[in-house]
Design goal:
Structural class: mainly beta
Radius of gyration: 14 Å
Number of strands: 9
Order of helices and strands: EEEEEEEEE
Low-confidence stretches: none
């Protein structure tokens, strides 16, 4: 099973501007422990390390968080990618397959800041 990540945030969420939000998520790998999670707040142009917390057993979801103060109102694409202890990193894209089995690409998570 491949490396994957997900935000614990509603799809196309609306966030209030002018304050810091703590983004939460979880990452997983079927090959071992997740060692690193990076989050992009600008559609993949730059990446920041998220803080892993809680237990991080092999082949289990690990929790992570990252504080974010949006620079202003508008639409944003948040991305999260994990790296496991074998060095496997989530890819930007994966080949299409009809049923979506083993999907593990980085997902662009849209949000709106008001």
């Amino acid at each position: 099973m491949n490396v994957k990540s997900a935000f614990e945030l509603a799809w196309d969420a609306t966030l209030k501007g002018g304050r810091t939000h703590v983004l939460h998520g979880r990452s997983w790998s079927g090959n071992g422990r997740v060692r690193r999670v990076e989050v992009s707040l600008d559609g993949g142009a730059t990446w920041r390390d998220a803080r892993l917390h809680g237990p991080a057993p092999a082949r289990a979801w690990v929790r992570w968080e990252l504080p974010w103060r949006p620079p202003g109102p508008g639409r944003y694409e948040l991305l999260a990618r994990a790296t496991d202890e074998t060095g496997a990193v989530q890819p930007a894209t994966v080949p299409y397959n009809t049923l979506g089995y083993l999907f593990g690409a980085v997902v662009r998570h849209p949000v709106t800041v008001t």
